[in-house]
């Protein structure tokens, strides 16, 4: 056994040990549903496994019919060689090509089906077993066509595939609906997603696709993160070295912290270039960059760091090191000391809490399953399957929002079709006010009465919506009657609803008619009154030069009114004069009484002394 084959065996043993040590985890096959609508004996919903290539239509559906080729049934060759085409003609259903598993890669089958004009590919398993995930080939020399596969793919069970083939052989048209609407959870207005990646840039096309994705998706990711629409977390896969091999050259070159955290050799050659432990350290540094940036409330800086590091510090230029990384960190204004503290000592014989957390996170929890494919995108705790492409991933993220909470980017023409543009989506609308209940969503549309300028509309959203509450009259007059004539405007809109104003009668919504007060004898009815009806009111005059008093609905003489007015004023004047005289008399009377009382009081002080002297003298005379 040569050195490299021995290293390969060691990697196999290491990986096996990792899986055994994580026995509580499991790999979860991500699925979507396939609904057969015809023929009747096949009607029903079936599960199928989403392929990890192409572009699954997350959040959407696709309708078509199934075709099974008479030649090239495994689709390992170009269908042009057999003069077979599945290109859809105008007005026809798209073709879902059913092929058999075996003899070539799943991706090769998909590529040949796509070139033949198929809208999707269904691969029938060749043995009875649980569904598996169709992945891309691992070899470094794989064809470039992989990045150009755009049709969705699905693996179906052997038994279901046999039933489809039988129906097609019998001449039946098999209509199906591929449904990805529930492939991803969409519980609320924020999407949480993880990207399991690697800093290694020498692992071939797979590494190239990772960094290309990061570069292309960076702008959209940062906007979504800054505005609070998403919560992103990067992760990195490591494994540990079995205890029996810790002192081996292989583990020492691939691992840090005494075999606890390992990565494959970048060039798969231990005799040259960088080692696996270099990759582990750079992975750790990228995790710490994210942690420190997040602590400073700028987690989106991770995208800048990873992009700049890939450009400025590639392995090929021998710059894949700490010095170059520190330069990138400094240029982004991050605290490199805090990042170094987070990294710790890679040579210490102890656990690194950051990498230990990464290993724990790799084990599946809930519906997610273990992360075993690199790179892996996890959206709302479900593993994404499909092409690692900006448009495809953005569609998947948009499918993770609760309907009507999607950001504007999810409603652009490049991502989805605006169903409100055709017949207003079948929803209520007020064309005059340019108001509609149709809300375009990533998954379709909803009919929901809107809120316009703070005014809430209420109704079923399909046939009826009506403004309610204060301010409702500011929006298309609240949907009530309104009319202007000769410079005068009347409206039936009130805060409580539509009610014809005084002088009008009707339903208040569609029509208000003028009330003829003269004809209906509700005003201006006195003997001398002359009534003239006007729009929304009336005019009342009097004959014989009389004056009309509206509050009494009567006519009075203008002269009489004048005389009466002056007489009234004279009465008031004389009344005031009389009141003044009476007041003066009372005043004089009260003064006089006051003066009299004062005089009597003074005189009373002297009168008792005279009387007292007489009494004393008389008494003395008796005693004598």
UniProtKB/TrEMBL annotation:
GO biological process, one term: protein targeting to vacuole
EGF-like calcium-binding domain sequence ranges: 514-556
One Pfam family here: VSR_TRX
Stretches assigned to coiled coil: none
Family annotation (SMART domains): EGF_CA (SM00179)
Segments crossing the lipid bilayer: 565-587
Keywords: Calcium, Cytoplasmic vesicle, Disulfide bond, EGF-like domain, Glycoprotein, Golgi apparatus, Membrane, Protein transport, Repeat, Signal, Transmembrane, Transmembrane helix, Transport
SUPFAM superfamilies, A to Z: PA domain (SSF52025)
Signal peptide start-end: 1-25
Family membership noted in the UniProt record: Belongs to the VSR (BP-80) family.
Protein's name in the database: EGF-like calcium-binding domain-containing protein
Organism: Urochloa decumbens
């Amino acid at each position: 056994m040569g050195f490299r084959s021995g290293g390969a065996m060691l990697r196999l043993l290491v990986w096996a040990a990792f899986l055994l040590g994580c026995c509580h985890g499991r790999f979860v096959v991500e699925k979507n549903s396939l609904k057969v609508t015809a023929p009747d004996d096949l009607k029903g919903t079936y599960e199928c496994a989403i392929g990890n290539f192409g572009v699954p239509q997350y959040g959407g559906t696709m309708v078509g019919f199934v075709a099974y080729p008479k030649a090239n049934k495994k689709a390992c060759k170009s269908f042009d060689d057999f003069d077979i085409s599945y290109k859809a003609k105008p007005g026809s259903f798209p073709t879902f090509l059913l092929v058999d598993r075996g003899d070539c890669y799943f991706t090769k089958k998909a590529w040949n089906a796509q070139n033949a004009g198929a809208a999707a590919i269904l691969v029938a398993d060749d043995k009875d077993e649980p569904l598996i995930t169709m992945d891309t080939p691992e070899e470094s020399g794989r064809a470039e066509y992989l990045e150009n596969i755009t049709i969705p793919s699905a693996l179906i069970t052997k038994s279901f595939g046999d039933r489809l083939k039988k129906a097609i052989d019998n001449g039946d048209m098999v209509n199906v609906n591929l449904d990805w609407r529930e492939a991803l959870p969409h519980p609320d207005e924020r999407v949480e997603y993880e990207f399991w990646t690697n800093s290694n840039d020498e692992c071939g096309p797979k590494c190239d696709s990772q960094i290309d994705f990061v570069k292309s998706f960076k702008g959209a990711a940062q906007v979504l993160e800054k505005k609070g629409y998403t919560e992103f977390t990067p992760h990195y896969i490591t494994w540990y070295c079995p205890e029996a091999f810790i002192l081996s050259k292989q583990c020492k070159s691939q691992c840090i912290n005494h075999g606890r955290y390992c990565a494959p050799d970048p060039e798969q050659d231990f005799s040259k270039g960088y080692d696996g432990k270099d990759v582990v350290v750079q992975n750790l540094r990228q995790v710490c960059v994210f942690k420190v940036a997040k602590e400073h409330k700028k987690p989106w800086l991770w995208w800048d760091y990873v992009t700049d590091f890939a450009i400025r510090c590639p392995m090929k230029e021998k710059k894949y090191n700490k010095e170059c990384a520190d330069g990138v960190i400094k240029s982004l204004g991050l605290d490199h000391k805090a990042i170094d503290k987070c990294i710790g000592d890679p040579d210490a014989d102890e656990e690194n809490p950051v990498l230990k957390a990464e290993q724990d996170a790799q084990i599946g929890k809930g519906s997610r399953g273990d992360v075993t494919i690199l790179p892996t995108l996890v959206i709302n705790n479900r593993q994404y399957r499909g092409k690692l492409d900006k448009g495809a991933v953005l569609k998947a993220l948009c499918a993770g929002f609760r309907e009507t909470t999607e950001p504007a980017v999810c409603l652009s023409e490049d991502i989805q079709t605006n169903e409100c543009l055709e017949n207003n989506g079948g929803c209520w609308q007020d064309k005059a006010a340019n108001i509609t209940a149709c809300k375009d969503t990533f998954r379709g549309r909803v009919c929901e009465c809107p809120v316009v300028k703070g005014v809430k509309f209420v109704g079923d959203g399909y046939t009826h919506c009506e403004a309610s509450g204060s301010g409702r009259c500011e929006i298309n007059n609240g949907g009530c009657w309104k009319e202007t004539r000769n410079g005068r405007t009347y409206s039936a809109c009130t805060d409580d609803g539509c009610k014809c104003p005084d002088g009008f009668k009707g339903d208040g919504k569609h029509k208000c008619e003028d009330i003829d007060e003269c004809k209906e004898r509700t005003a201006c009815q006195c003997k001398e009154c002359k009534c003239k009806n006007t729009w929304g009111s009336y005019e009342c005059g009097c004959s014989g030069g009389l004056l009309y008093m509206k509050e009494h609905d009567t006519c009075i003489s203008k002269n009489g009114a004048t005389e009466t007015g002056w007489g009234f004023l004279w009465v008031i004047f004389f009344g005031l004069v009389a009141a003044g005289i009476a007041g003066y008399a009372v005043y004089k009377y009260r003064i006089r009484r006051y003066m009299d009382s004062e005089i009597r009081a003074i005189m009373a002080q002297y009168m008792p002394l005279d009387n007292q002297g007489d009494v004393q003298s008389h008494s003395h005379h008796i005693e004598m």
